[in-house]
Write a structure and sequence with these properties.
Chain lengths: ~260, ~260
DNA sequence: CAACGCCATTCACATATATGAACGAAAACA
DNA sequence: TGTTTTCGTTCATATATGTGAATGGCGTTG
């Protein structure tokens, strides 16, 4: 059952247009569940009464943001959500510059390169250029990963002040592999080290047999965006990691200079 | 006002939950406009009263689907729209197979390859694998182009029956270049030819100096998905175009067999 | 410097939505 | 096959939202 507090007008959290909030809540439920969802499934996910869901779902389906099967009782995300959501990339003036920088970087190092942004405790991949030789692309535009478990995330977390870090980190640092840093103190000292050096590295912390290097793109303070190179973890030496790290730092510094010159913040 | 029937003239489908419909309408307005939008801008775009917009915008901002500047009077699309929208790709069981096929194709032909889906009169790019040597990627996941102006679109339009085609085509066939087919009869005969041959080609119809070949992935009837190769238009012969065309048809047929075997429709 | 126009915001009432309960159809179970 | 449960759908009313007009801040114009 949904608990709606009666007579609490002042709480900013519960404020807003209920159906609009619910529409978005539903879209996110669909984003998080890659199967057909029935009305009752959604009721369990969101706590919204089935009778209310009925109207909302038909509305969202009519505008093409969700699709239903022929009986009209199962639903899933529709193409319009993709079309509109990816427009985020077009509206962002950073992207053309970032893409160029990414291609230059990839052509120099030969590895798969990413551009990502911090969003709360997660990083969001915004753009990728794959290695000229790689087997398979692991990531995807729009995918999120826990910041503490990735080179990209760690270098961005290192931008935060101590209290900001505390505010942003989840209660439990989820382990993606056995090597993921799950201890807050360990993470803090890792971040201090990263801050010192100007780039972050990672071996098997986000995914086994993968190594990553990342550097912040310092066009904002604190930095929100970073670039990374992803490499085969078992075939890459520490020396190589560090060589790529300083190159990365240079390319990122270059990019941010371009951005600042273009007046982009 | 007591008149209920007469009072709902302009809005085509007035049914559904109004605020949910409007929330989505706003998101689409943000998707189509890559600048900061003020409340009044949005009023002009959508016709929604400013006072109503006020509440809706704050709600959408609070859930992170749009962002505002510090005064809180300008808005644009937020990251959550990207994160959720791109989940469309994960929920689609076709994608892993399509990606594999795309990589195989790219490695065989060496050109940039796309996987796309028909959505009304447009195609939507779902996945891309770039040429090992190409300079720059023109397309992007989630981007749409008019179907009649692209090889991908034409081969998918060729799947439709005559009345379906009539229903789906826009009134005016927009010209992306001077070579875009803008005449309906010309388009129809082109589609007949494509149907015959099993793949479509295009030279400079969507973009100057670009040539494309596309084939339907026949795992549904009518087909909704297609694969294409995009090549430098000035450096590619007709013979090459046709060679790639039949290879493409084979790869697409292969993929659809995999999909059918996996029970995906 | 004053008046104007533009715009976000607020308010009170009219309209739209939310929802618990009820219903019937279809699965699941026995 | 009979019974029970589950699920989507509908309805009437309580609640939330929509909206035109009014407000006041702010930058611009005369």
């Amino acid at each position: 059952m949904a608990h709606t507090d009666i007579a609490t007008p002042a709480t900013a959290d519960a404020a807003g247009v209920k159906s609009a909030r619910r529409a978005v809540e539903l879209l996110e439920a669909f984003g998080a569940n890659h199967a057909w969802l029935s009305l009752t499934d959604l009721h369990h996910h969101t706590g919204i009464p089935r009778s209310s869901l009925h109207g909302l779902l038909r509305t969202l389906r009519d505008v093409g943001w969700i699709e239903s099967d022929e009986p009209g009782t199962r639903f899933r995300l529709g193409v319009r959500a993709l079309i509109c959501g990816t427009a985020y990339l077009d509206r962002d003036p950073v992207m053309p510059y970032a893409t160029d920088a990414l291609e230059r970087l990839r052509d120099q190092v030969g590895y798969t390169c990413h551009y990502a942004r911090l969003n709360g405790p997660d990083i969001v991949y915004l753009q990728t250029r794959e290695s000229r030789t790689s087997a398979h692309l692991v990531s995807r535009v729009g995918r999120t990963l826990p910041a503490h478990a990735t080179a990209l995330g760690k270098v961005l977390l290192a931008e935060l002040a101590d209290d900001e870090l505390t505010a942003v980190l989840p209660k439990n640092l989820a382990a993606l592999t056995e090597l993921t840093i799950t201890d807050r103190d360990e993470l803090r000292s890792e971040l201090a080290f990263i801050r010192e050096r100007g780039y972050s590295t990672e071996r098997g912390e986000s995914s086994a047999d993968k190594a990553c290097v990342a550097a912040v793109v310092p066009y904002r303070i604190p930095g929100t965006d970073a670039m990374s190179c992803s490499m085969p973890g078992d075939r890459v030496t520490d020396a190589e990691l560090q060589k790529v790290g300083s190159l990365l730092r240079d390319v990122a510094a270059d990019l941010s200079q371009q951005l600042r010159r273009a007046g982009i913040r």
